[in-house]
Amino acid sequence: MSQAKLTPDQTSELADTFGLLSDPTRLSIVIACKDDERAAGDIADHLGISPSLTSHHLRLLRSARILKSDRRGKQVFYTMADDCVHSVLDVMIEHLFTHSHPDPV
Amino acid sequence: MSQAKLTPDQTSELADTFGLLSDPTRLSIVIACKDDERAAGDIADHLGISPSLTSHHLRLLRSARILKSDRRGKQVFYTMADDCVHSVLDVMIEHLFTHSHPDPV
DNA sequence: ACTACATTTGAACAATCGTTCAATTGTTGG
DNA sequence: CCAACAATTGAACGATTGTTCAAATGTAGT
User: Fold this and answer.
1) Which chain B residues contact residue A2 at CB under 8 A?
2) CA–C1' A53–C17 (A)
3) Cα distance between residue A34 and residue A7, in whole Å
């Protein structure tokens, strides 16, 4: 479990995954889809960003299999596709909430 | 727990943390320090990169409090400073090992 | 004080990235 | 077929990033 020995390919793959979560806008999109199904346009409205920007980010997240898409009529709905990323976000967000005491003294 | 509502600051902070894990070289450094204490020079040797490059990455990881440093004599030893990042790496690496069947058919 | 070793720093470069805008594709209803 | 809505695409831009090289700092032993 510990003392991990990753191949260069595995390391790059892992780094790529983190890279997709490293932009605030894109991270917000992922979090918005974390526990709910969301239409592309609704994500854009919710975050106050353009449909175009949303779509660019969604394409990256989709092709990395972090999100998956499902078209129903005119709308395209997005949900989490990666259990691993889902639980990583839960861990980090939980940590943010429990350790929200930035200035103790 | 779920349905997380993060402030823009929290989202950016989280994105920054992921950003520090998003470069293969830097991620390798973090993983090298994940369960062991490592001197800066040993990390460089282990990864086959220059001391300078190692130090640049270490500075970023240190100032984000992902790693902490401890100088003893000429050497500076680095260890994990963030439990949260530690467990996230464990989750992701575990996932990499259990799902290592890239081309089934 | 001088030398050797370990690490850090700063400037500079090419490469990558996020965003915007205009145009396009896909889908449904009249 | 045409209009209206939803989403995607591609080109272009400014900004950020990882890396290298040369120089500097810190530490220990003689």
Assistant:
1) 34-35, 90
2) 13
3) 29
